[in-house]
Amino acid sequence: MREFITGLPKCELHLHVEGTLEPGLRFELARRNAVGRPYETVEQMRADYDFNDLPSFLACYYEGISVLRTEQEFYDLAMAYLRKAASENVRYAEIFFDPQAHTSRGVPFDVVIRGLRRALVDAEAGLGIGAQLIMCFLRDFQAEYAMATLLEALPYRDWIVGVGLDSDEKGNPPAKFAAVFARARQEGFMLTMHCDVDQEDSIEHIRQCIEQIGVDRIDHGVNVLEDPALVEVVRQRGLGLTVCPISNSYVTDSMKTDAIRRMLDMGLRVTINSDDPAYFPGYLQENLIAVHEALGLSREELVQLERNAFEVAWLPRHVKDAFLAELDAYAG
Questions:
Q1: Spatial distance between the Cα atoms of 329 and 104, rounded to a whole number of angstroms
Q2: What pLDDT digit, counting tens, does each position of 25-68 carry?
Q3: What is the CATH classification number for the domain harbouring 116?
Q4: CA-based Rg of the chain, rounded to a whole angstrom?
Q5: Which of 223, 224, 305, 290 is nearest to 257 (CA)?
Q6: What is the model's pLDDT at position 39?
Q7: d(CA 87, CA 152)
Q8: Gap between the Cα atoms of 90 and 162, Å rounded
Q9: Are strands 10-16 and 160-166 parallel, antiparallel or unpaired?
Q10: Cα 306 from Cα 331, distance rounded (Å)
């Protein structure tokens, strides 16, 4: 089954490019740019990756981001992920980036997006992996800052497929950003939002995502299972749920594989993703293996997880169909 998973054509929809900053590259950039704590070794830096909930993870995550300064560094970051993903037969990825995490410390928006975009173009030409960018707003900043960031992104509209919402959820409900997401929809962006696992007011936040924001997808979202009426809405609308099992095991009490099993059995469009694989060790392939080993998934169920991902990806129908045909050919 590991061999089968290795060769499986894959689609990743919940991946933070800043969360792919491996300790080796972070160490190199920290020394080059003279930022961050003065670690003596890469191993010492990795040992500081000590977190047990969302806030403690975010503190480590934002410290890591501080080493990124130049267009070339953003290019190198994205290319490192895309090479790894291509080696695991990820055929297509939708990649989150957090511009406010950079503009708030003086790195221009243009520097960030040009580095990332160039990597996506080069990876498609050289590695055969397709990818698009999703711009996330940081929910612990003001909604006005999110709106300003959206307006700043408009000249790059063709480079960004959708917008999302991430960072610390406590006290920052989806409704806080309703006007921002309404403008994003008006500008033609697809919409998604994080509804992190086991957070305060999880069900209410999922309800707001669906009823007030009108999202096209929900990131994480496993707590929807606590409300049968919301489950039915998710099913009827065909909304994708981008679950990140290994990540869950670091910031909650488990990988939530029981929830993944229930979602599969209910016919929900659940997908498996890696989230921040430099911090939660395990890229997409390792997450699929972990879920398979926990649940004893069949080949058909593994294929269904990838079918779900390709179906809810923000791609034209003919491109989805080409990827699905490749998946069907592999499954035999």
A1: 47
A2: 988 898 888 887 778 888 888 887 777 788 888 888 888 899 99
A3: 3.20.20.140
A4: 19
A5: 290
A6: 80
A7: 34
A8: 20
A9: unpaired
A10: 11
| Cα 218 to Cα 271: distance, rounded to the nearest angstrom | 11
For residues 10 and 3, give the distance between their C-alpha atoms in angstroms, rounded to a whole number: 14
SS (H, E, C) 69-130: CCHHHHHHHHHHHHHHHHHCCEEEEEEEECCHHHHCCCCCHHHHHHHHHHHHHHHHHHHCCE
> For residue 197, how many other CB atoms are within 10 A of its CB?
22
* Domain around 256: 2-331
As given in the structure block, the two tokens for residue 133 are 């960018």
Q: Which residues pair with 146 in a beta bridge?
A: none
pLDDT tens column, 258-303: 999 999 999 999 999 999 999 999 999 999 999 999 999 999 999 9
Tally of domains within the chain: 1
Query: What sections of the chain are H helices per DSSP?
Result: 2-7, 23-33, 42-47, 54-65, 71-87, 100-103, 109-127, 143-153, 178-186, 202-208, 228-237, 245-251, 257-266, 284-295, 299-312, 317-331
121 sits in the region (left: phi over 0; alpha: psi -120 to 50; else beta) called alpha
